[in-house]
Design brief:
2 domains; two-stranded antiparallel sheet; globular
Length: about 270
């Protein structure tokens, strides 16, 4: 969203009225800085107008497609479950065991309730990444911007990272209550700023790692296809498929590790 398109419509006096002290130069500078940061964009986007807000239309289209693929696959492969699995049921059970192993390794004995969350993260990121590598999005022309993997948009990866942050805070608070925050002053209160900073860097590293890898892969393949459109880009496309799967695995594994850390403490 572009907050700078909305901000001019809000009278500055209305903003001042919400504070308990008169506006200062520092307040104005801080608000302007927030507006500038919120206006940062990477690439071109096809915007939809919803009321006074602008949303990235191409990201929503791609996300809906990814969710449809996941839901249809799940419904088709689990429609007729059998005691002795075959066909699509084999695939689903293999995937479930794979995610269960990740959750058990990273979280420990309390892993079962987190299998659906980690599985959903892995599936969404995996299918999103592969959709960008396999589907020829660029043959579909938009008024502005272009279609691609949902995960090559920073908004998507930040949302996934924030969901992970909420999940591990919820895990820690549910088990330990407000005693969860004792970890910030362990083993010594001197480490309080560092421990707080660590929780801010976790979602940053998750979001930018995924975003950077997927965006870079799509840019490299797009450049090579424009220069040498025949055989040479194929090995890089295959490498991109492998890298995309690894990125989904890394994200799910780190999410499990953070949840396990919140449950166990330091």
């Amino acid at each position: 969203m572009r907050a700078h398109d909305i901000a001019p419509a809000v009278p500055r006096l209305a903003l001042w009225a919400t504070t308990t002290h008169p506006p200062t130069y520092t307040d104005d500078l801080f608000m302007n800085l927030l507006y500038d940061i919120s206006a940062v964009e990477i690439g071109q986007h096809f915007y939809w107008n919803i009321g006074e807000y602008h949303v990235h239309g191409q990201v929503l289209l791609n996300t809906w497609l990814v969710l449809t693929i996941i839901l249809v696959t799940a419904l088709v492969t689990t429609r007729e479950l059998k005691p002795i699995p075959d066909g699509g049921q084999n695939f689903i059970e293999f995937f479930l065991e794979f995610i269960r192993d990740i959750a058990k390794t990273q979280i420990g004995s309390e892993y079962r309730q987190w299998v659906p969350f980690l599985g959903t993260l892995f599936l969404f990121i995996f299918v999103s990444n592969w959709s960008g590598a396999l589907i020829p999005w660029r043959i579909i022309e938009l008024p502005n911007g272009e279609l691609g993997a949902p995960t090559n948009d920073i908004n998507t990866t930040v949302a996934l990272a924030l969901m992970t942050s909420v999940a591990y805070f919820y895990a820690g608070l549910r088990k330990k209550g407000f005693g969860y925050f004792v970890k910030y002053i362990e083993p010594t209160p001197i480490l309080l700023p560092i421990n707080i900073l660590e929780d801010f860097t976790k979602p940053l590293s998750l979001s930018f790692r995924l975003f950077g890898n997927i965006l870079a892969d799509e840019l490299v393949v797009a450049v090579l296809i424009s220069l040498v459109p025949l055989v040479i880009p194929i090995p890089l496309i295959l490498l991109g498929l492998f890298t995309s799967a690894i990125q989904a695995l890394i994200f799910a594994t780190l999410a499990g590790a953070y949840i396990g850390e919140a449950l166990e403490g330091h």
